[in-house]
Amino acid sequence: MVWYENSEDRFGVRGNIGDQGEALVQQFCLDTGRVWKDCNDYHSQVILKIDCLVDSVSVDVKTNVKNNKHIVELDGWLQNTSAERIYPVDLINKRIYSYNIEDMRQYIDTERYYVFFSNGKRLASVSIHLPFIERLL
Q1: To 5 degrees, how large is the angle CA 88–CA 86–CA 18?
Q2: What kind and span of H or E run contains 135?
Q3: For the whole model, what pTM was predicted?
Q4: Cβ count within 10 A of residue 98
Q5: Mean pLDDT for the chain overall
Q6: Residue 3's pLDDT is what?
Q7: How far apart are CA 58 and CA 98, in angstroms?
Q8: Sequence-ordered list of residues with C-beta below 8 angstroms from that of 108, at least 6 positions apart, any chain
Q9: Over the stretch 11-43, which tens digit does the pLDDT of each residue have?
Q10: Phi, psi values for residue 79, rounded to 5°
């Protein structure tokens, strides 16, 4: 497998959007005095499914918030990330949210939500205003 230094080279336009979200998180951490460490290596990205460490906590950044809805890959990253926290990013409004991955897994297991399919993936659209989701920026 060829490894690229950024998501844009790996995934095209969607990867570029992800790179912008990660850059927003990095800048937020620098501006607020949080310790940020990039995890842009094969093991972190492909095996662990994490993007960075924030104050030593593993984070997977998801730049997929629109109209106060966050898209969750039900059979994808929700199940296979090893990140402790997810940082959903609304790139248009420059907002960053945060939640514990286990809280979302429990929500998906017990609550009702809107499910749809896109590019063969089963996705859920969930409100960014759920009680366990914190707005950081």
Answers
A1: 50
A2: strand 134-135
A3: 0.90
A4: 18
A5: 91
A6: 46
A7: 12
A8: 72, 74, 78, 124
A9: 555 667 989 999 999 999 999 999 999 998 889
A10: -90, -30
Q: Which residues contact 16 (CB under 8 A, 6 or more apart)?
A: 7, 8
Q: Going by C-beta distance under 8 Å and a sequence separation of 6 or more, which residues neighbour residue 119?
A: none
How far apart CA 92 and CA 82 sit, in angstroms, is: 27
Sign of CA dihedral 95, 29, 55, 74: positive
3-state DSSP assignment of residue 104: helix
Residue-wise pLDDT tens digits, 58-91: 999 999 999 999 999 999 999 999 999 999 999 9
- Token pair belonging to 75: 């059979």
**Which three-class secondary structure state does DSSP give residue 89?**
strand
Query: Domains, the chain, ranges and CATH?
Result: 7-132 (3.40.1350)
From CA 103, how far away is CA 86, in angstroms rounded? 10
Q: How far is CA 59 from the centre of its chain?
A: 7
